[in-house]
Amino acid sequence: MGSVVTPWPRLRALLAPRWLTHSIRNKLLAMALLPLLVVLPLLVGALVIWGNAAYDRLLITKVRSDLAVARGYFEQVLSEVGSGTQAVAASQALYHSLNRRDLPAVQSLLMRERHRLGFDFFNLYALDGRLITAGWLPTAVPPAELRAPASGPAAIHARVSTDQASLARLEPAELLALAPHLAPRLNIPLIATRSAVPTTRSVEDRALVMLATTPVRGADGSIVALLRGGVLLNQNLPFIDHINRIVYPEGSLPFGSHGTATLFMDDVRITTNVRLFQDERAIGTRVSQAVREAVLSRGETWLDRAFVVNDWYVSAYEPLVDARGERVGMLYVGYLEQPFRYVKYGMLALIVGIFVLVMILAALFSLRWARSIFRPLEQMNQTMQRVEEGDTGARVGTVSARDEIGALAGHLDELLDVIDDKTRALQRWAEELDAKVIERTQELAQSNASLQQAQAQLVKSEKLAAIGQLTASVAHEINNPIAVIQGNLDLMRETLGTQATPVQAELRLLDQQVER
User: Fold this and answer.
1) H/E element, 268
2) Which helix (H) or strand (E) segment is 418 a member of?
3) CA 451, CA 58: separation in Å to the nearest integer?
């Protein structure tokens, strides 16, 4: 069976590579730089992510408050439509004019009140639905086609609450029955809009109206007529501009951003200060499909960035409902995202830059700090290498560290000094021993030479003794004849006497030879 290879060696090799395990300098550098190169970037990343989310939440919080302001004003205007209609219906001037059947006075009163309250129409109806007079008519008596009971206004009577004003989405015929003079504001050409729901319609001709119907009572409290007042929101530029001024006053948005406000009927902008090109308003453009589904289909409030006509805005949309609770439109406020996005990126870049600068400074400090640790160690290592190579005078020397490593470097120098002293003493003892050995060797050589000389002398003596013995033996053997010869010479000299004179020289030579 094959051996099973565990992942631990690979993991260990990955976490502790060879270059890291074979050098304490690399280990110290890794320890010093690891928090900077790993932890700080992770911290910067987390801070950037958190800062980006927090900044986005801050923008959303602002647009939520902007929507609350816009909704408050919208509801205030809607309430004023109801209260204004009730106030006119309950006014003594209207009561006395009706008692006198003074239609010009009634029409004049409704016209004055319409202009004072900012309404688009004030209509006074009989209980059977006939128009008695209106504040927008040029004369007190309405045309014949408006005096006849009509199904449109009657239907409106049935479905509009008489307690307070409400929104109403009206068909073209219904609005024309209420206020024909508003017809020019109805037909809004639809403009193809990016990300909008596809549609086959080309014109929006319905009306979105703030509508209030209040009974007019006689002296006995009975209802004698119905007063209807309202404000048409289609292309109502003063209304939307006023909302925008309330929500986004001049200078309220920094960095060159600007705020926008819009009223939608369904998903169509019927009044807005969002611009298409220069001063052309984006009336007739439509909301994106995502916003439509969230707000109109599900009834949610949209608080997020959204593509508005031709740019991204931090946007807030909420549904508008009619008296029956049906979602008939949307209220929108928002401000241009791009300046804030640039500021956000600038702030994040500044944060990253500060962290990078701090990381560089910290890295330099860490390297300097790490160098104060591994520099004495490197000096000690180099010193030991020089000592191994034979430089016994190598020392670490003075180090900047005043900690345990500095003390260790000093102890190493002291140890090397002790070793050097011991080595020198050993060398001195070795030299003395060598000298003694040499001296003893010389003495031994001399002794050997003397012994050899004595041996030579002894051999020579032995040889001489042998020669002497031989010589003595030879001499003994020779001395006897020589003694005979010497005796004979003496005898010849005595015998011959004077006759031996001629041979005296030969006799002397013989004597000399005998004496040798």
Assistant:
1) strand 268-272
2) helix 404-496
3) 116
CATH number of the domain at 255, please: 3.30.450.220
**If you count DSSP H runs as helices and E runs as strands, how many of each does the chain have, helices first?**
14, 14
φ, ψ of residue 202 to 5 degrees: the values are -120, -15
The predicted-structure confidence for 197-229, as pLDDT tens digits, reads as follows 998 889 999 999 999 999 998 888 889 999 999
Q: Does residue 164 fall inside a structural domain?
A: yes
Alpha carbons 310 and 276: distance in angstroms, whole number: 7
pTM recorded for the entire structure = 0.68
* Burial per residue of 419-451, b for 16 or more beta-carbon CB atoms within 10 angstroms, e otherwise: eeeeeeeeeeeeeeeeeeeeeeeeeeeeeeeee
- What is the per-residue pLDDT across 271-319, written as a single tens digit (0 to 9) for each? 999 988 777 899 999 999 999 999 999 999 999 988 888 788 899 999 9
Please give the residue range of the domain that contains residue 486.
404-503
Mean pLDDT of 125-133: 86
Contact predicate 285/260, CB 8 Å: no
- Asked if 303 and 413 sit in the same domain, the reply is no
Please indicate, yes or no, whether residues 273 and 153 belong to a single structural domain of this protein: yes
Q: Are residues 421 and 320 in the same domain?
A: no
395 is a domain residue:
no
Q: How many CA atoms lie within 13 A of 439 on its CB side?
A: 6
In a domain, 21, yes or no: no
- What 8-state DSSP symbol labels residue 226? E
Does 273 fall in a domain? yes
Helices in 224-274 by DSSP H: which ranges? 237-247
Give the range with max mean pLDDT: 117-121, 382-386, 420-424.
117-121
Please give the structure tokens belonging to residue 316.
């807030």
Last residue of a domain, one of 343, 360, 394: 343
Looking at the fold, whether 322 and 458 belong to one and the same domain comes out as: no
> How many CA within 13 A on the CB side of residue 450?
5
Residue 188: φ, ψ to 5°: -115, 110
